[in-house]
Amino acid sequence: MVDWKDPDLEVKLGILLVQSLYAILGLYSWEYIRSSHVEIALLRRQLPFRWPLLSYISARFSFFIAIILLATQSSSFYTNVDCQSMNFAIVFSVNAALGCSTTNLMIRTWLIWKTSYLLRLLLVLFSLGYWTVLTLFLATARGFPQNEVCVIHSVLAYASAVVIYSMLYDLALLVLTIIGLWKMPSTSTLWKTLVKQGVVYFTINLVANVILLALDRLDLNPAMNAIFATPAACICTISSSQVVLSLIRPSSDFQSDSGSSVKVPPLTTNFTTPRLSSVDEA
Prior knowledge:
Layout: H1 7-34, H2 37-43, H3 52-74, H4 83-112, H5 117-140, E1 142-146, E2 149-153, H6 156-182, H7 189-218, H8 222-226, H9 229-246, H10 252-256
Antiparallel strand pairs: 1-2
């Protein structure tokens, strides 16, 4: 049986953790650059800024900062700073990315239920609850050096609460989105895409969060507790961003459905870039 408290094993896991950070940095940097046309369009004023884009941009940028900080503190060129200060900056950035990624889904549900003020109030309460749990996790997280690496340690209950709340929140948004669209029956491709996106996003994040939750509850050692945290946050951020981008990419099917008698609430603003064509507003 594996002795998860073995110091030699913890050193090896620490090395694996650092290598995974560099892999995620490369993957996310490629993804960020590949899908940066929205930010470029905003900077070139080809896309008027709309508030639904705030969570999209914030999620991407926050996780980019977090993974850079994580990779920097694990590099051989890292200049020692206070571990707790670095820990606060990293956890704050990751929490902002997670919160804004879920907000991307909440905004779509908010717009679909634009005629129900009670349900919108419920969505606001759900969102405030999630941000509260993230804030509690941030307030209780501590950083301490281990094998020359600053390891983040948090109260297990808050770490598990973040994961569980995230899964339940995503499930609630998926159900509300499907119900909202069901009340507007349509055969349009956009209607089907919104449902499929919600199912795919929830499934991807469910798998990532279940793995993360299992490792948290097992509490094998600090390295194992943290080894899947960054990949899970990366998966959440990328999948959420792709949900937004998929509504911006041109599609002839969407155009062919424009004559449908049932209108879906707009999800994005109309704009044109070298890679983008006209889209519905989100």
